[in-house]
Amino acid sequence: MSRNDEVAALLEEFADRLEATGVEYKPTAYRRAAENVREHTAPIENLAGEGADAVAEIDRVGDAIAAKIVEYFETGSIEELEALRSELPADIEALTAVEGVGPKTVGSLYEALEITTLDELEAAAEAEQIREVSGFGAKTEENILDNIPFAREARERTRLGDARPVADDALSYLDDLDAVESAAVCGSIRRWKDTIGDVDLLVASDEREPVVEAFTDWPEADATIEAGTGKASVRASGTRVDLRIVDGEEFGAALQYFTGSRAHNVAVRNRAIDRDLKLNEYGLFDVSGVDDPDAGQRVGERVAGATEDGVYAALDMGPVPPELRENNGEVEAAAAGDLPDLVETEAIRGDLHTHTDWSDGGFSIAEMIEAAAERGYDVHAVTDHAAGPGIFGNTGLDEAEIAEQAEAVAAAVSEVDGAVAAADSAADSAAADIEVFHGIEANIDAEGAITTDDDTLADLDIVVASPHSALGQDSDAATERLIRAVEHPHVDVLGHPTGRIINSRPGIAPDVEAVVEAAAAAGTAIEVNANPARLDADGDAVRIALDAGATIAVNTDAHSPRELDNARYGVHTARRGWAEAGDVLNARAPDELRAFLDD
Ligand code: DGT
Ligand code: CA
Ligand code: CA
Ligand code: ZN
Q: Rounded to the nearest 10 degrees, what angle do helices 118-126 and 138-156 cross at?
């Protein structure tokens, strides 16, 4: 965590505590300041060293807040914040993680019931004490109780998109050390789970001490949790990072073991036992002539262990892609030689869900097209928000604005070198570098209606339809809603089907099978939204969709050129659902894509 992030978090806590004590306006000022400190390119500690005036140069950071930041760097704390903490000794971060509990609620519940922790909140709700507090009722109390487990889990697990860059950074740091022979990421990160408990790293080396020392000195490490001879753990960006060091001849077996999942490992180990072999993190051993195979870890004759593929091969099975290792049929498939040929990030030929400054994106139509062309994409769809339920203020486009945008897209296409409009593509696409589709992200209302006129939708190259409102509706209503949406004749892609925000809100829980069957029949693709806060549809839903014969689309929902890089999170999520390139709409050739959209 950079010190900018650290100060931003402190200012956010300040804002929450001010709000909890009933102070008005000031909390907003602190939150805006926090946002700008976090985004500021210069290290805050350097500015603070120069004094409050230098800190106040940051947008939205006034003199009062600047002085507090300097105070923090000079004394290690902020007196006023400490006073607020002792006035309200509640774990405000944990409590506000519960959907429906804001800082004001924390303040009221502390005053009435002295609630300071999630456990106390849960106990009070179970004892029906919260409904007695003025301003609360039985319904609110039930909601709080329902949302506590989600909040608890959210605090324990990190989003893949936050943890993966930490793992990548640690890996390249370790790889550069002379003492390191090979290094790999393992654990749930290597399986690309949507949330992860901790980051696991594995190194092969015969010089363990210098590796441990270098690891605890890794510049991104905020603290050392433990440092032993063969392993060490540090904290970085709020996540635990575990390192294990093994001998080269054991690297493959250790990689297999520490990648998991536990259920997959149990199934693979049973396969070993069936063959008079013993599999553990040290290797694969032939124990057929051994009296007591449990006498030690390295008993019998080593038959594999240096490479992971070698371990699987010695068990008469193909190498199982990490994303599949959840004991959902992958062991049987690998033994039968039936593993899918999973889609790769490089197979993606364009993004079908992106935003520009016409709605809530930060960049122009031309800038986004250029960015897509630079990535080597063959196609790019401009799909800004349509006006409708769940879309804030006038962010979304009404029918007249969509018509206007069609002209703007055409103008941008002629401005960007090598771009051609999808409408003209039949003749020109052979010569074009990138084919641009004009579409919209339409809204699915609570009943499943699309809130943009049919005539307007009919004129567009592509319609992504997504739920943005009524995300607390019950499962039956959600199923009906999404079925009606995918059956709409102009809808091509169902965008982020559940509307979940990982660790923040669960979204709707439709009957996935019913929705994907309707989608398959109607020729509507199911989106895997690659934004790491969404990853929606998830791997399980993708598997169900593909079994039903539906097509998926891996889209980033990018609001900036940089977010186009999130495609890999969507691809690996699709791989968790056993997706091959042919299953993915935007991995198909442009003419096939066009045929799907025209249908
Ligand atoms: P996470 O960190 O909760 O997202 O999930 P994982 O899968 O990364 O689990 P973690 O970090 O506890 O351990 C990494 C891998 O090591 C795990 O997937 C399987 C393996 N492993 C660790 N401890 C055990 C164990 O006691 N038994 C077995 N069979 N495998 C283990
Ligand atoms: Ca882990
Ligand atoms: Ca671990
Ligand atoms: Zn959306």
A: 150
Considering only CA atoms, which of 513, 510, 529, 525 is closest in space to residue 588?
525
- CA nearest neighbour of 180 among 206, 157, 156, 144: 206
Closest to 492 measured CA to CA, from 437, 419, 570, 556: 437
Q: Is the pLDDT of residue 429 over 60?
A: no
**List of residues 6+ apart from 46 with CB closer than 8 A:** none
Please give the backbone phi and psi of residue 230, each rounded to the nearest 5 degrees, phi first: -100, -5
Closest CA to 465 of 515, 422, 502, 431: 515
Ligand 4 center to residue 465 CA distance, Å?
8
Distances (CA, A) of 314 to 184, 247, 277, 294, 303: 21, 20, 10, 20, 7
- 231: which DSSP letter? E
| Inter-residue contact 420 to 428 (CB < 8 Å) | yes
Given ligand 1 and candidates 155, 191, 195, 265, which is best to mutate, with the most ligand atoms within 8 Å of its CB?
265
Give 536 Cα–ligand 1 centroid separation in angstroms.
25
Ligand 1 centroid–CA 70 distance in Å is: 43
Q: Read off the pLDDT of residues 278-321 as tens digits, 9 standing for 90 and up.
A: 999 999 999 998 888 888 889 899 999 999 999 999 999 999 99
Q: What phi, psi does 510 have (nearest 5°)?
A: -70, 165
From the list 561, 502, 552, the residue with the least C-alpha distance to 528 is 552
Please tell me whether the overall predicted TM-score, pTM, comes out greater than 0.90 for this model.
no
From 188, 264, 273, the mutation candidate for ligand 1 (largest count of ligand atoms within 8 A of CB) is 188
Please give all residues whose beta carbon lies within 6 A of any atom in ligand 1, as ranges.
Answer: 187-188, 193, 196-198, 200, 257-258, 260-262, 265
Sole residue written with tokens 């992860």: 196
Q: Which ligand is in closest contact with the Cα of 322?
A: 1
Domains of the chain: 3-156 (1.10.150.110), 158-246 (3.30.460.10), 264-336 (3.30.210.10), 345-598 (3.20.20.140)
Residue 157 per-residue DSSP state: -
Whole-number CA gyration radius for the chain? 27
Please give the share of the chain, as a percent, with pLDDT higher than 90: 88
